[in-house]
Design a protein that fits this description.
The protein has 2 helices and 6 strands; from the N terminus they run H-E-E-E-E-E-H-E. A 6-stranded mixed sheet has the order 5-4-3-2-1-6. It has 2 domains: about 45 residues; about 170 residues, no CATH class. It is α+β, with helices and mostly antiparallel strands.
C-alpha cells in the first residue's frame, strides 16, 4: 500500500514539474514575442504625452527625432540606456524631455517623461507606464486625474530640496489621502530628473554629426551622454 502511495506521489510530482516547466517556457516565449510590440506601444504613447507637455511654440526643430542617448544613471532611475528628446528654437537649446523611472512605486516601477526648459523650469511630467492600484494610486495618470500637473513650473531654484516631498512629510506637494507611496516615488523621481538636467544640461544638447544622414531628421544626430 505504502509503495503504491509513494509511486502515486512521485507520479504527481513529476507531472507537476513537467507542467511547471512547460508553463514557464510558454511564458518566456510569449514575453519574447510580445516585447517589441509592447516597446513600440510605449513609444507611441510617449509621443502623445510629449505633445501634452511641450508647447509647439517653444521649439522649431523636429523634437521627436532630435535625440540623444543617455547611459544608465541612478539619478534617472535607469538601469539601461534612455533617450532625451531635444527641442531647439532658432538653433538654440530650448527644452529637453528626459525619460525617468521611479523604482519604488507601490506596484513597482513607474516610467515617466519630464520636460525641462533651458532655465530649469519643469514644463510638465507625464506617466508612460505604471502598475499602481486602480482607483487609489493610479491618479498619477493624466487620464485619471490632474494631479501630475502639479510639477509644471517647479524648479530647483524655486523649491528647496526639503520641499520636494508630499505635505505629509513636510514638503509642498499635495497628495490624495490613502495613497502616499505612489506620489512620494514620483516626486522623488522628478526631483532627481531636475537635478540631472542641472548637472548635464550642456551635454544633453550637444549635437554629433552622423556619418550617414538619417531619413526624416531635421536636427542632426544622436549622442551618448554620461
Amino acid at each position: 500500500m505504502s509503495r503504491s502511495m509513494a509511486k502515486a506521489s512521485l507520479h504527481t510530482a513529476v507531472n507537476l514539474l513537467f507542467f511547471t516547466l512547460i508553463g514557464t517556457a510558454m511564458l518566456a516565449v510569449t514575453f519574447e514575442l510580445t516585447r517589441d510590440t509592447i516597446k513600440e506601444s510605449e513609444e507611441k504613447e510617449k509621443m502623445k504625452l510629449i505633445a501634452q507637455i511641450v508647447p509647439p511654440t517653444v521649439y522649431d526643430n523636429d523634437i521627436m527625432n532630435d535625440i540623444g542617448h543617455i547611459a544608465a544613471d541612478a539619478m534617472l532611475g535607469s538601469e539601461e540606456e534612455t533617450i532625451v528628446h531635444r527641442g531647439r528654437l532658432k538653433g538654440e537649446p530650448a527644452i529637453a524631455v528626459l525619460e525617468a523611472i521611479a523604482p519604488d512605486g507601490y506596484g513597482g516601477k513607474i516610467k515617466l517623461i519630464v520636460a525641462i526648459h533651458k532655465d530649469g523650469k519643469i514644463g510638465g511630467v507625464r506617466v508612460v507606464t505604471h502598475n499602481e492600484t486602480p482607483g487609489l494610486g493610479d491618479y498619477i495618470d493624466i487620464a485619471k486625474d490632474k494631479w501630475i500637473t502639479v510639477f509644471k513650473g517647479a524648479s530647483l531654484e524655486k523649491s528647496r530640496d526639503r520641499d520636494w516631498k508630499v505635505r505629509k512629510d513636510g514638503g509642498t506637494f499635495d497628495f490624495m489621502a490613502g495613497a502616499t507611496i505612489t506620489p512620494r516615488a514620483v516626486i522623488k523621481a522628478v526631483h532627481k530628473a531636475a537635478q540631472y538636467f542641472a548637472l548635464h544640461q550642456g551635454e544633453l544638447f550637444k549635437t554629433v554629426v552622423q556619418d550617414k544622414p538619417v531619413e526624416n531628421k531635421k536636427a542632426s544626430g544622436k549622442e551618448k551622454t554620461k
